[in-house]
């Protein structure tokens, strides 16, 4: 990697012909659409600019065989800064994304293949292509919470979570549903308790800090928001109880069954509150509107405004934002 001080790159554009088409086709075919894959593309392209083509994919894996060489926040942000982009693409630079090595290998194969058949390849222009993809990623279309007079609140939330699941399938390795759930719970708590009553964190941030007991710490409650309850989560609940904290798990309908079994096995089922996410949100929304239909939209607007502010402050992926829409 180039260790020189960051400087803004001169704009180099790909021709409208075959190379651009090949890159666009590769990005669609191999699903280079999320922050992890885009980080891989930027770092590997920079390796190619530094050492030339062809690349040996085995030389781009760390000695521990677990990560792509140079794939970290500092390296990725240094590349983006040269193009005038200062927003953080990924807190870990894509290192924690599942399948990053496979993505690297696929991209190296693409670059080497193009090089072998065309010889000249404008790597500066290719880097600009990926930076443009990052810009499009930041400007991604938000999720939509649809309001229909025939729907209950829970049906609207169900539609929203289904959108998150669909996007997650399109971007393997991402946790869109988990991020959505955590920050919606946080937004609702802000409206009920006030901004100063709790601290927000990125959905990917570890909750292992000594002074942090869950995704949200409110009075003596440790609130855990998860799509997939695990034994590790149950151990955290045990630790909460040891510290006189009252654990509360908010999860999906499917996660409820898993959590119930794990809590029973640990012998703490009666000491941990377990609530399904959509019910948790819908119940409070009805209470906040005092069950008045004409106040529902205004209340949801307040929750979404708080949610979007949390996304701005703690997440780099603006496509996590929510907009209100009418109809089904």
Keywords, please?
two-stranded parallel ribbon, four-stranded mixed β-sheet, alpha/beta, disordered N terminus, 11 helices, 328 residues
Structure description:
This protein has 328 residues and is an alpha/beta fold. Helix content is 51%, strand content 9%. Helix 8 links the parallel strand 3 and strand 4. Helix 2 crosses helix 3, helix 2 packs antiparallel against helix 5 and helix 7 packs across helix 11. The longest helix is centred in the first third of the chain and has 19 residues. It is globular. The chain starts with 17 loop residues before the first helix and ends with a strand. The N terminus is likely disordered.
Concise summary:
With about 325 residues, the protein is α/β, with parallel strands linked by helices. It is built from eleven helices and six strands. Helix 9 links the parallel strand 4 and strand 5.
Principal-axes shape call: globular
Number of separate strands: 6
Q: Over all CA atoms, what is the radius of gyration?
A: 23 Å
- Which residue ranges are poorly predicted, with pLDDT under 50 across at least 5 consecutive positions? 1-5
Strand order of the main beta sheet, please?
2-3-4-5
> What percentage of the residues does DSSP assign to strands (E)?
5-15%
Helical residues, percent: 40-55%
Main beta-sheet strand count, sense and barrel state? 4 strands, mixed
Nearest-integer average pLDDT = 87
Count of separate DSSP helical elements: 11
Helix-strand makeup class: alpha/beta
Distance between the termini: 49 Å
Q: What pattern of helices and strands is seen along the backbone? A: HHHHHEHHEEHEHEHHE
